[in-house]
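mind reviewing this fold:
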Amino acid sequence: MTMKTQSKKSPVALAVLALLYEEPMHTYKMWQLIKERAKDEVINVRYRNTLYQTIDRLLRDGLIIEKEVRQEENRPEQIIYELTVIGRKTAKYWLREMIAEPAEEYPELPVALAFLPMLPVDEVITLLKTRVKKLSSEISRMNEILGEAQDKILRLFLLETEFVLAKTAAEKIWVEGLINDLETGEIHWNEAWLRELAKKFSDEMNH
């Protein structure tokens, strides 16, 4: 699975190529379709400028081209984009790679867990309980989306929501387990213990 391309792979870039794979279209229509199809659940287009910047990059890298400029009455010009041959090949290559290869992603929670002892145990427990409430709310929201869509949309077009739901539910279970371990004292720390541990490591390094 090798293919040389100068363009940087990203969820937004794949979304642009995938939409243009359907048909040529302008930027605003792409943004509308991402929203209408609820693909913004997994693709961050909160700021439309992100989409414009991605399109500029794909255009510069030769994955898409300007097909035509449309001018409708009392509306600004709209540039219609279409895929190039290399853009079509790149879209399929990126899709295959995203399916087969786990990506090196750096979400915030693992970073926070790496430096957890900076905060007191009690405060960490409170913060984790806040996280659980928000995860529970998100799980309810996604279950509602899937419930409403069940008889209207083929499951094929809801798989990304199913995946995010499963991942969120698994995170909630894990965080609840961590809270329990902190509350029972199975995992614990305090400032004096941390200083003692740091001194021990320092002494071992010097011998």
About this structure: The first helix runs from residue 11 to 22. The helical segments are 11-22, 27-36, 48-60, 85-100, 108-114, 121-149, 159-184, 191-205. The two ends are 48 Å apart (CA to CA).
